[in-house]
Amino acid sequence: MSAPRITVALDAVIVAVSDRTPRVLTVIDGDPPAIPSGPLDPAGDATLELALRRYVREQAGLEVGYVEQLYTFGDLRRGSAVAPAARAISVAYLALVEQAQPAPGAAWANWYDILPWEDHRSGRPSVIEDALVPRLRQWCEADDHLSGERTARVGLNFGLEKTPWDGIRVLERYELLYEAGIVAEAHIDGGGPDPAPVPGTTMAADHRRIVATALGRLRGKLTYRPVVFELLPGTFTLSRLQRTVEALAGVPLHTQNFRRLVERAGLVEGTGTQTSTGGRPAELFRFREDVQLERPRPGLGIPYR
Questions:
Q1: DSSP H helical segments within 223-254, as ranges?
Q2: What gap in Å lies between CA 95 and CA 301, rounded to an integer?
Q3: Per-residue pLDDT of the chain (305 residues; tens, 9 = 90+)
């Protein structure tokens, strides 16, 4: 029996924030939705990143600025209910942009429609206690030998009992739900429908796993890199900066503490101009580029625990 072929695909998690909502660009030429993706042309693509930018341009009509390689995915049965004819390797990238109108066939999706258990800005989401915890407990109790280990993992990842919620554990939570057979993708990969689907948008192949990886990476980078400014215009109010950080972090922030944090970190500088916000005029700020030369990790240090 001959070995399967190996194919290499490029996947893009493109993130924007608008109206207090973190959004992911999806391609809607089919059901379920997918992130922009395409195969690498070994002879024609000079670099992986240039190939990725080409697919985003072709499929969504957008040019992306900030791009970083996210992860390489290569599970044997990734996104397929049957044994694949080829071993599919995916090199995923994370891109941050200001939201713009995509081409027909692409659309922005609310990140928290895809992963609804991750948005804690208005308190702990009801989907955790109502839909996830009961099935997770059933899964824990289904195996006497693994019950203790599974219970500990569930508590750690979903903040049960006295364990605090850790916002950065996005991928670990999704992987746990997949392993427990709670997300639809687990049943699709196994060759059957989910008998009791939980809230959350199902995505093509393993694209929801890739999106979860990107959110965890982005939340982690908020603490030590000024990546949030890639999602903002050249000038902005501190209120808009706070809303953008909250949208990504999925937790509310105390306004005065946040502003003191930004000031101490030296991340922004005033422009000397103001803008009308419907009430008192608000001062406009811009990202202070020199901070990257002054500090090795110029992030916001947002606490997740």
A1: 238-249
A2: 21
A3: 566 678 888 999 999 999 899 999 999 876 789 999 999 888 888 999 999 999 999 999 999 888 999 999 887 665 554 445 667 889 999 999 988 899 999 999 999 999 999 999 999 999 999 999 999 999 999 999 999 999 999 999 999 988 999 999 999 999 999 999 999 999 888 777 667 779 999 999 899 999 999 999 999 999 899 999 999 999 999 999 999 999 999 999 999 999 998 988 899 999 988 887 666 788 999 999 998 888 888 888 776 54
What count of residues does the chain have? 305
Q: What is the pTM of this model?
A: 0.91
108 three-state secondary structure: strand
Beta bridge partners of 282: 275
Nearest to 248, CA basis, from 270, 275, 272, 229: 229
DSSP code for 267: -
Domain with CATH 1.10.10.10 in the chain: 226-294
Determine contact, residues 89/74, Cβ cutoff 8 Å.
Answer: yes
What CATH code is assigned to 5-111?
3.90.79.10
Coil, strand, or helix at residue 66?
strand
Q: Is 268:241 a contact under the CB 8 Å cutoff?
A: yes
Distance of CA 304 to the CA centre of its chain: 16
Give the strand pairing for 37-39 and 5-18. antiparallel
Looking at domain 226-294, its CATH architecture is Orthogonal Bundle (1.10)
User: Please, which residues have CB within 8 angstroms of residue 62's CB and are 6 or more apart in sequence?
Assistant: 14, 25, 56, 97, 100, 102, 103, 106
SS3 (DSSP) at 143:
coil
Q: Strand, helix or coil at 282?
A: strand
